Each structure stands twice: as structure tokens, then as C-alpha cells.
Amino acid sequence: MGIPVPFRPLRSVLALAVVAPLFLAPAAGRAQQPAAAPAQDTPLQARYRAAADRLIDTAVADSAAWQKMARLTDTFGHRLAGSESLERALDWVLEEMRRDGLENVRGEPAMVPHWVRGKESAELIEPRRMPLPMLGLGGSVATPRRGITAEVLVVSSFEELQRRSAEARGKIVLFDEVWRGYGPTVHYRGNAANAAARAGAVAALIRSVTPHALRTPHTGAMHYDSAVTRIPAAALTVEDAMMLHRMRDRGERVVVTLRMEAHALPDSPSQNVMGEIVGSERPNEVVVIGGHTDSWDVGQGAMDDAGGVVVAWEAVRLMQRLGLRPRRTVRVVGWVNEENGTRGGEAYRDAHRDQLDDHVLAIESDGGVFRPTGFGFTGSDSARAIVRQIGGLLRRMGADSIEGGGGGTDIGPITALGVPSMGLETDGPRYFWYHHTNADTPDKLDPREMAQCVAAMAVMAYVVADLPEKLPRGAPPARGR
Questions:
Q1: How far apart are alpha carbons 249 and 478 in whole angstroms?
Q2: How far apart are CA 72 and CA 433, in angstroms?
């Protein structure tokens, strides 16, 4: 997950030690309650109940999705746009999709930015010397070769910096903004450098965007306004941001040395990777599902978003394995360059612009493949009513919630042109503990929960692709939105 998009907060999750024994069972708090009588199926549900149950039963019978995700991330590591590791991983995905027997396996070109982190460090100089774990923000410029050593001004908000702007000139500004949910808090990551530069600061630091920390810094995308001086920007750990804030509140002089070699190279050629199960009756009509193949250049990008790509990939393979060929084509896409741009989503939109009227639905998984709770949906009221019926087929897994506001960064460009969209919702507040850090590794994902995500994606995509009629669309979005 990179460029912020509107989304709902992820729900709470049971600890893994509790979840594992309860796989496919009711939540612990309801375990002793009498089972409610099953609701009577609607005609749509009755038509697809057997297929849905086959997809669920087969998906949860093994850990194939987790094993594939772990092999991908262990073999290639992080996959930042422009990196050799990303391109090697994409070639591997195409080879494995062909080996799995997917149809029309191919890559579609996309030019992506190529930002290189280089060596970097931060050190507290006064009131005592100590190294400060840090990560430069994606897109930042470098410091001078000898670094920047300056006094630190700590503020809690953009508004406080405005009130104290006279104090910022020549200083490093640290934004110690507390977590208020990803959407509100991530604005500090994106805009800290611009706000600090307007006040005359020489560099910007932020408190890492996370609700929970073990002195681990979190990176992520930032941007520069053309009207301000470009100054270096980096993230400190939650603990160190709070410590520096306490020091300043006690009246102590805080001095930090920041060194960064970050720089941008020319755009690089890359590709969106995809494969299909071709529709039996209306192959030109498409349900597209997927996640993004790129990651930040730290950790292994397992949660964000190798897991999302793999569960969509496995959902298509599962339909093929069971001989469930829907009326319409289901296409899995691994979009590129979600983290520090939207080039993959834009390239897909441009390559398929003439076919978007036949894109029935787009589903993205980019929130961590923890236990699925359902989907968010963006589309017409009549389409939502149909999707809610399909969601009912996932009730046995507790994944039947259909709420508003579904989508994602990669499918955003086609959603803006009227394609109905969904985002897989999961019970995973832990996502932002490890998001954009060195700790985004395969062990954070549970094989059982990933298998459930495969089942949820497979059932939703298969049924929508097989309905006698296309999902009805509402009025197209207003121009310019």
C-alpha cells in the first residue's frame, strides 16, 4: 500500500495463537452460543451454493498460497520499482503462471520511477550521542555529502508549525504526530518536507506512521511541491520521536545529524503481469482481480503486497483446477509501481481503455491477507444488492460483510472511468505494525488466513463472472473527479 486512498480502518484481530485452532469456526466469544438457523438462500445463492462450497473447501485444504508467497519473497526479497529484484520477480511470476496452466499469460509494459535510497543515517548529537534508527522517505532528495547537523524543532501538527514558523528557520523540523488512523496520519509523511521548507527548515523528520512500534522506522512515499525548496525527509521511530519531544519540552537543546544519499535515476521499463481463465460464453467481458507486485526496498514485501497478488492468482488457479470456467473471463493482474506511483494502474487503464465498458468488476487486495471479513464495494445500488447476495455465500467463513467504499490505488484509474470496484477487507490491525518496514516478512501472515482469502476472492470473482447478466452500472463519475 503506497499512495494513500480512502479506506475504512481495519478491524481488530485475535492473536494468532487463538485464531489457528478456530480456523473456519465461530469467533471465541460466540463459541458457546446456539447456532442460528441458516437464512434461506435467495435464488442466486441457491444457484451458486455448490460451486462456492467447492471453492471454499478446496482453498482451505492446503497452504499453497502461503507457500507461493513465501517462495516469491524469500527468493527475490524487496521489489522497489526500478530494481533488478522486481524485474527478476516479475519474470518468475510469468513463468509460474504458465506452469500453473493459466491462459493468456503476458506482461504489459509500464515505465516506472527509479528512486535509490543509498546509505543513510541519523544521529543524536545533543543532549547526548546515540544513533537514531531511521528510513528516508521514498522520493526524498539527499543531504549534502557531509550531512546536515542542526537543532531540532519538534511540533505535533502542521498547525503548530504555522504558529511557530519563526523558530523553524535553519532547523530540522520533527513532526511528532500521533496515530489517528492511516488516512489522517499519512498526510504528514506526504507533506512534511513541503511544510518544513516553507518555514525555512533545512530537513524534515516524521514520527513513523504506525499505531504500534518496537523501535522500527516506517518508510513510504512523499512528494515535493514545485514552489518550495526540496529538503531531505526521513522517518524516525515512534519511540525516538517521543523522546526528542520530551527533551525539547524540558527545555533541552536537541541537535541531530542527518545523512542521506537518496537520488532519482531515469524512469525504467517494467510491466504489469497477468494471466486468465477465459470465459466460456463472453470472453471479452472481464472480471479483473489482483494486487501489486512491487514493494518498498525494506523487508520482503510479504504483506504489502505479495500476499495480495498471490491470493488473486491462486483464486484463478483454483477455478481452473476445479473445472469451474465462468461465462466471463477472470483476469489476475500483478500491478507494478503502487508504492511510489500509480504507473501500473495508469498503464493498465491506457492499454485497456477501449475495453473498459466490458470490465464488469475490479477487485483489489492490498490490506494484508489476514482473516477475510468481506469486501468494500463501489458501484450502483442495484449492483451492491447483487454483490451482497454473493457475499452471503461466504457467511460460513465470516466473510460476508459488504460495505461501501471499496477499491484501491491500482484499480483507481479504471474505477474513475466507471468500472465497479471492490477491496478485500481483512481482520488485520497488525498490518500497520509492520507496514513499510524491515519486519514485513512472510511470518506475519498465517497460511490458514491466506487460504480463506483465496476462497473469498475466488467465490466473489467466479460468481460475478458467471452471472447471466453483467453487474449493472450507475451513472459514471463526474468528469475531473
A1: 48
A2: 22
What is the pLDDT, as a whole number, of residue 428? 82
Q: Hunting for cell 524540558 — which residue is that?
A: 250
State pLDDT tens for residues 264-278.
999 999 999 999 999
Closest CA to 460 of 414, 393, 371, 405: 393
Using CA atoms, how far apart are residues 113 and 266, in angstroms rounded to an integer?
Answer: 7
CA 71 to chain centre: 20
- Report the greatest alpha carbon distance in the chain: 73
C-alpha 256: how far from its chain's center?
32
Strand, helix or coil at 427? coil
d(CA 372, CA 397): 8
Query: The pTM is what?
Result: 0.91
Other residues' Cβ atoms within 10 Å of the Cβ of residue 18: 11
Q: Is 322 helix (H, G, I), strand (E, B) or coil?
A: coil
- State the cell numbers at 407: 477499491
**Which one-letter amino acid corresponds to residue 36?**
A
Q: Say how far apart CA 370 and CA 35 lie, in whole Å.
A: 25
179 pLDDT exceeds 50? yes
Question: What does the alpha-carbon distance between residue 129 and residue 152 come to, in Å, rounded to a whole number?
Answer: 14
Backbone φ, ψ for residue 313 (5° rounding) = -60, -50
118-261 CATH pick, 3.50.30.30, 3.50.50.60, 1.20.58.1610, 3.30.460.10: 3.50.30.30
User: Residue 470: what are its φ and ψ, rounded to 5°?
Assistant: -65, 150
Active-site annotation holder among 87, 177, 276, 338: 338
Nine cell digits for residue 164: 511557530
Q: Where are the domains of the chain?
A: 16-114+266-466, 118-261
Alpha carbon distance 461, 390 (integer Å):
10
β-pairing verdict for 328-335 and 359-364 = unpaired
Known active-site residue 177 = no
Has domain 16-114+266-466 been given CATH number 3.30.190.20?
A: no
Other CB atoms closer than 10 Å to residue 34's CB: what's the count? 6
Place of cell 488512523: 181
For residue 332, give the nearest of 470, 472, 462 by alpha carbon: 462
Environment class of 464 (CB within 10 Å of its CB; exposed 0-12, middle 13-18, buried 19+): buried
pLDDT digits (tens, 9 = 90+) for 280-328: 999 999 999 999 999 999 999 999 999 999 999 999 999 999 999 999 9
